[in-house]
Every structure is written in structure tokens, then in C-alpha cells.
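Sample A.
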Amino acid sequence: MHNCEVRDLGRMRFGEAWQLQRELVDARKADRIPDQLLFVEHPHVITMGRNGHMENVLAGEETLLRAGIEFHHTDRGGDVTYHGPGQVVAYPIFDLRNWKRDVAAYARALEETVILTLADDGIRGERAVGCTGVWVDGRKVCAIGVHLSRWVTSHGLALNVDTDLSYFQYIVPCGLTKPVTSMRELRSRASREEVVARLTRYFAEVFQRETIRAEKVLVETLA
């Protein structure tokens, strides 16, 4: 089995996390570090994927600022999404050459990781035909958007655990006029720490990786 270092970075602004991902991708492509799995929670932010449409952002810049929401264009796939407190975001920095050189299979495997995580709470997560992500009774509970550079992944998944769903009013999530939900709304009482532990366990199982808990500080790794 290949190793994968797991880090829980706690609360971190999106721009800072994105810069860290870029540095880790460069280090992974140079084979200076093993695969990485980062967990983070972002302050309120709306991000636009490279295939996104600005009409799916339903509020102007001033309105977003008053609501305390940042906005970022990104290089991930997909359209617009929201990140915020109560959401577990996972960013795998993962070399697909050591797994499968198949982007669609990678997205399905991320979905499977989330579906298994939800099942621990008796929640039946499902895929929707033609849509990426995980759904429960037609409501989206997890968004997925990734980027690849020389087969090394960045960005990843955002699972609504105890998210204030009212913030989704500012966007058309992923460009789809479908409702969103959260694990808490689905009557899960799992803590953030429990969800992170489950995602780590099932990520290792689905991707056949040996996970290693690592320190948050990455300065020495990237030097």
C-alpha cells in the first residue's frame, strides 16, 4: 500500500488553503512528499469553478461583503459552490498514476467515500445521473470539484455536516436548481471530529492507502 499523510488544518481562509494546495501539488509532482489528505473548515466563501457561470451567483459584491462572504474564482471543475462553518472540506493531493489514470473513476471514488461515511449514521447517500456529488432524497449533501495537474489532484469535496444552509440562498449550487441538505438536518449527531475520522477511514479503504496522521505544520515538508 502507498502511504497518505492526513492533516486536519482546522479553520483556514480559502485563499490560504488554495495556496497551500498549489505548493503541495508541486511537491507531490516532484515526488518530495507522499499523497496528502487535508481537512479544513473555511469561513464563509463562495467559489467559482472554471466551468462556472456568474449568473449562478445571485447576489452582488456589496451584498456578499455585508454578509461576510468572500468570493474566489478557482481552477477546479464545476460551477459555483459555498463553503462555510459546519462544513467538512477534504482536499486530497493525490497522484492518480499510482491508482487509476481516470478522472471519472476518481470522482466516483470520492462519492463512495462520502456514501460510506453517511451510512454510518443510517443515511442513504446516492448519486444522481449526470451530476457529481452525493444526494439524499434529491437534496445535495456533498459537492465535489477537482483539478488535475500531471495527474496530481487538488480541491476535492465539501460535506455539509452542521452547515447553516441559509447561505446557499446567494447561489445556484453547482448550477443546479435543486435543494441542499446537511447531516444535521438529516438527524445525524456526528461531531466534526467523528466525520473527519470516518472520511479518513473510508478514503483509505476506497483508495487502498495506508493513512498516517501528520502535524499541521508543512513548512519543513515544502522547504
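Sample B.
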Amino acid sequence: MFFSFKKSYKDSGYLEGFTDWHSHILPDVDDGIKTMQEAIDVLDYYESLGIKEVWLTPHVMEDIPNGSSCLRQRFEELCSSYSGKVKLHLAAEYMLDNLFLERLRDGDLLTYGNSGKQILVETSYVQAPYGFHNILQEIKDADLTPVLAHPERYQYMNWNDYQSLIAKGIVFQLNILSLVGAYGSMAQDKAFELLEEGYYTYHGTDVHSLTSVMRLMEKKSLKKSDIALLRNPY
């Protein structure tokens, strides 16, 4: 009977006081939110859910070569336009490609987390970048800690890969919408396995649009036991 009760994120209370550590709300800079008004609408919706803080993490990659100064300017525009209660922070989600290596070596990066010593990174979903572990080591040699976005979504990774990365001090960030099937059953299963092992440090939505995040936040597919897992402090 315990496992038969299901709730949505919206109804679970899990998001009260939540910090969203991964979002594409900064408008008109990548494949996420396109307009200032939609960005404000998302933040208003987040406030209604009880979310208190949001990290804005726009893509930076060879196909979306956002410069740090341009992102800071856009962030200031959003902060000037938004008058709600959600606290906003700026970072970026960096694809581990040649553009990232150039910026790492130039020191031109938007850091992540309260320490200012972390960097949110991602890879292709289907294969690791050439020299993947060497790139991670180069990040660490720059006195930064790599935070791997949504590791549950990487099709090429297996359990040995996850254990190896954790052993090397790589930090994991969960897309909470993976747990309600937003990216398919394989990512969903991996997310629960990694969550049960306590491998995630940060939780985020990876929101790209208001309509999709509302649908998934209100989808009734979280068991009480699942919510208890999410509440564990890591």
C-alpha cells in the first residue's frame, strides 16, 4: 500500500526551498527560453512551487559560442526585469570540446557553486570526447572541480564509468526530471540507481521551456519512497 501512493513534484512538497542547479532560463542565448517575458513566467511559476534559488546555466559550445561578457550582460538585463523572490545566479554549462579547452586555458569561465571553484560540464550523449579523462584532469589542475551535468543521460556510460568518475572526485548533478521519465526509461533507471548510491551532489531541472517543465512538474509519477530518496542530504 505504501508504494501505491503517487504524487507529482508540484504536490510532493519537495520543491519548497529548492535550489535549481541547472536551467536554461536566461533568455535568447541558447536552445532554452527565448524571450524575457517567458523567462519571467518560468521564474513566477518556480516561485509558486516554492523554489528559492536558480542557477542560470546557458550552453557554451562550438555551436553556441556564448562569451562570458555577453552572458553577464544578459543576466543583468534579466535581473533588472525580474522583480520576484527567486534568487538568481549565473554560471554556464560547458561542452567538453575545443572551445572549452581554449577558455579553460584563458581562464575565461563562469564558475558554478558557492565556492567559485566548480565548473558545470557536459559531453555528447552518445560518446565521450577525445581525451575525456585528460580534460577532466586539466580542469582539476586549474584548481577547479568538474561537475558533470545529468550523468544518467549519457548512453555510453556504465556503472564502472560512474564509479571511476566519483573516485576521481568528479561531482554529479541530477536532472530531477529524469526520475519522471523525461529522457526515457534508460536514463530514468540510471538516475534512480545513482540516487540510491548517493552519487548526486546537485539537483536541477534543466528547464528549456515553460510548457514542458509545467507538464513534467505536474506529472503524477513520484512514489513516496522516491521523494524520500530525494530528500536525503548529499
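B remarks: The longest strand covers residues 118-122. The longest helix spans residues 36-49.
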